[in-house]
Design a protein that fits this description.
heterodimer; A: alpha+beta; Sulfite Oxidase, Chain A, domain 2; 7-stranded mixed sheet; 5-stranded mixed sheet; 9 helices; B: mainly alpha; 11 helices
Amino acid sequence: MFKPFTPDLTAADVTPQSMWLNRRQLLAGGAAALATGSIAQPTRAGTLTPNTLEEITSYNNFYEFGTGKSDPAKYAHMLTTSPWEIKIDGMVDNPGTYPLQELIGDLDIEERIYRFRCVEAWSMVIPWNGFELNKVLDKVGVQAGAKYVAFETLVRPEEMPGQRGFRSNIEWPYREGLRLDEAMHPLTMMATGIYGEPMANQNGAPIRLVVPWKYGFKSIKSIVRITLVDKEPPTTWNMLQSNEYGFYSNVNPEVDHPRWSQASERVIGGGLFQQRKDTLMFNGYEDQVASLYEGMDLREFF
Amino acid sequence: MNRVQVIGHRISGGVRKVPTWPVYLLGLLPPAWLLYEGITGGLGVDPVKVMEHQLGIWALQLLLAGLCITPLMRFARLNLLKFRRAVGLLAFLYILFHLVVWLVLDIQLRWGEIWADIVKRPYITVGMAAFVLAIPLVATSWNGAVRRLGAATWGKLHQLTYVIVLLGAVHFIMQEKVWTIESLLYLGLGIGLVGLRLPKLVGRLRARSDQKLTPG
């Protein structure tokens, strides 16, 4: 039904906004829209079938709202996402605190259907809406010495119960980071929506990172700060358990997490008897990203 | 007797007339309900994990409940001893279901991964150890076994329950990504309930070593 993002696609192949808007009409209009036959259905071999919006918005890890999978859906409505500003600092030409709309500006919002693989060995397929991170970085101008990009999530305990009192078991803000070449890679995106809907709070509204070849926790949510630096930045899960979560955290079925195997994954959405699936190297994006890690021992740099 | 003990004693009188078989029947209802909800979509988008987790939690709760029976007798004169076997057997059944859900629905009999998990993942090793240790207890849970082993040996063997409860609680903590109040609470309760037995256990050990030291 949907086409996955593959590197041999050109800009022309990216689902245009009008089409996914049409799809929403299809969902809304049902048979009537079908009858007109006006909707082009891009199909190709090896298509990914996205999870439903309900699945994507009801099963989340977002510890700012609690450690349970349903906590974010339960509590994230408290979060105010407008106005929203992102501070961009460090080794950039135009540092500053940008209102979100100003930062997005005239960037085209495109749809990318990506596999999403959690370090806990479950997976989904998600139709994101957003733009490539490199477009934002180009806007602010990355300086020559910058080697890494650091990200921070909002800290607002009064709206994020997981950041309060005895439930708070992480040193906030939640921090993530990428090497500059990973950040500039065309697969790496900043997402502002799913299924053409504005990003649900529990999924990291109003704007989050999506790095499809890395474990889900790298795709930091509700971003308020982006810093260009020359040294590998500290990242939250690595700070908590450095032997379990590396800086890179690339999806790799051959390098197990110390407490569980990464060889296969539970596919979310198929019910009680859903077939387990073999995990793919770099989550299926090996052709696109393997060259980033040439010559690196992925067991050492896990 | 204090007031609590008077109440406990009175309840014990009522409980004496209650047969044990309904306990087994009641105990089977939650897993049956869980399976029904899982099949009909009532457990959310990741039903396997919910079933697995819930059965494990219930097993731990039953184990802890089993450990409460003797202290209730001692401190509150509440005699629930006749239900202890049922509670223990149900706890094992829940552990078994928990294991089966993991093997069949979660890891789906990928034996290579299963074996690697048991050997290489400490929390699974700990959980499996608890399960294996529980097998001899179930095998000797019938009246005849008590007679054959002798009450003293049987009692000593069933002290393994303490180890199983603690392993279960540790297994629960180890599979989590961060410390949570819930998992620490279970371990705290386990340590407390096993701790109540310590004076007796230590006393018995001391008596035994004294015996060895005494000549003749």
